[in-house]
Design a protein that fits this description.
By secondary structure, the protein is an alpha+beta fold. 23% of the residues lie in helices and 35% in strands. The chain has three helices and six strands, in the order αβαββαβββ.
Length: 113
Amino acid sequence: MKSILQANGIQVPNFAVVESASDILNFVRKHHLPVVIKPRKGYSSVNTSIIKTQEDLEKFLDSGFNYKNALGLDGALDLEIECFIEVGLQFFFFFFALQNECLLCFGLLIFFF
């Protein structure tokens, strides 16, 4: 979803697909903390982790990611990491689909300060 928004000129936080611990470490080296790590096909904030400190990162990595919904159908990790935005405008998109057809789509604009 973020790729589609980004391709259409809508600003999104820097993000990447996570397939291993090295993906997380490389992203943090490039973009720094804090970051958000979450299932790519999740909803709401279920199984979402906000990593603010190096200690948080070490605990997360030592936990083996500890996600119930972190595995895709093929058994591979299905996570993404993104930069954490503390201040600014955020637009949330909600989609409800049935058999790959969008039944309902709406957005919500929120200002965080």
